[in-house]
Amino acid sequence: MVKHTIAVDWLQNNITAKFPSDFDCLTDINPKNSNFYFHRVRNGDEFYKHGFAVTYKDKPFAYIKTNSRNGKMTKENVFNMRIENNKFYELGWLDTTRQFFKENYFEHKSFTRLDIALDGGNYFEVMEREARGLLRMTGKAMITSRHTPSGKNNGYNIGMMKSKKSLAVYNKSKELNRSNKKYIFDYWKRCGLNTEKDVLRCELRLKNEESKKIVGIDFDKLDNFEHLASIMRTNLESSRNTSGKKSLGFFEFRIPDKNKNISRKESFCPIDWNSIGGSYLEKDSTRNSRAIFSAKLMMKKLYEIYLVTKNETYNAVCFDIAVNTDLLDYLQDKTPIWCEQFANKQGKNRNGLVSDDWTVSFKEVHGKGQTRMFKRDEVPIF
């Protein structure tokens, strides 16, 4: 019997259409020479106009959202696709996805969310040892316990669900008894995983911004055991950077001793990577830097100026920054919040400005490299 299985458990990504977007319709779609059928199910969401349930050979395959409501936020030929969970536990799911892209003239653009599930192993003991002071958690992510509907402890989370990277550790066998996902249990049996005892799951969840850091991540290898293990290992285990300094792992613990420097303490990882395999992938950690932070601040200020001045130029610049820094998902999530905040502040401020202390609004870089700061009473109008 095998000790572990590893598989994609959630895949939501942006795909691009190679044809002019003409999904603006009210009926089902059966593309010519395609084995896939698009059933219109609802009017999309706040970002997309339409939603379609896609079937393959009369079986559910994916859910796709089409036609951006704001062409400046998301281009008309960019759709959002979420593959049904059961497909990942079937042989050839990636081949079917490639067939879907080919027959309908789509191509993968970027990940919106990618979950990888490692089943098997003992991941619960670390919490017991940490509670007794025998281990110390590394990193800045918050660790919280998980509970069943009856209140019993069923594992723990590292990081928050809204974070760009998080980890969930829980008893998958007990969860299957409630969710009735028999296809996962059948997958375990086919792979030879020991199911006589409860199977524990270690599930890594990556958002778009974090997945972009991994240079070596390959959409066409998401059905490959070694590649999935490499993605997990790169995100969870400590590694050495180009200067030789060892970083703190996202899912690693340190054994307490008299050494005050935590990076020099002996490490303990709940996952036996030597038996699982997987290698380190190239990772661009500079993305999570001051540049990203500055881009987020600038986008918020530009969008606030757009709300005040109603000048579309500021909104366009805001969108360009999001594209260039791969922060489109961040911008889409934040704009409704910023609008609500602006509406609340506008009601409290007779001048209709964002806030009384709104002194820095925009930066203008001149040819000589000098930067000028504009105050609220001299906001530039392009």
Can you give keywords for this protein?
single chain, 382 residues, alpha+beta, ten-stranded antiparallel sheet, three-stranded antiparallel sheet, 15 strands, disordered C terminus
Element layout with pairings:
Blueprint: E1 5-17, E2 36-42, E3 48-56, E4 59-68, E5 78-83, H1 93-104, E6 106-119, H2 125-131, E7 136-137, E8 143-147, E9 153-158, E10 165-171, H3 172-179, H4 182-191, E11 200-207, H5 208-211, H6 225-236, E12 253-254, E13 267-268, H7 273-276, H8 290-309, H9 312-324, H10 328-348, E14 363-365, E15 371-373
Antiparallel strand pairs: 1-5, 1-6, 2-3, 3-4, 4-5, 6-11, 7-12, 8-9, 9-10, 10-11, 12-13, 14-15
Helix pairs in contact: 8-9, 8-10
What report would you give on this structure?
A ten-stranded antiparallel β-sheet has the order 2-3-4-5-1-6-11-10-9-8. Strands 7-12-13 form a three-stranded antiparallel β-sheet, with no helix packed on it. A hairpin with a 6-residue loop joins strand 9 and strand 10. The radius of gyration is 24 Å and the shape is globular. 29% of the residues lie in helices and 25% in strands. Helix 8 (290-309) runs antiparallel to helix 9 (312-324). It has ten helices and 15 strands. The chain is an alpha+beta fold. Among the domains are: 121-276, no CATH class; 290-378.
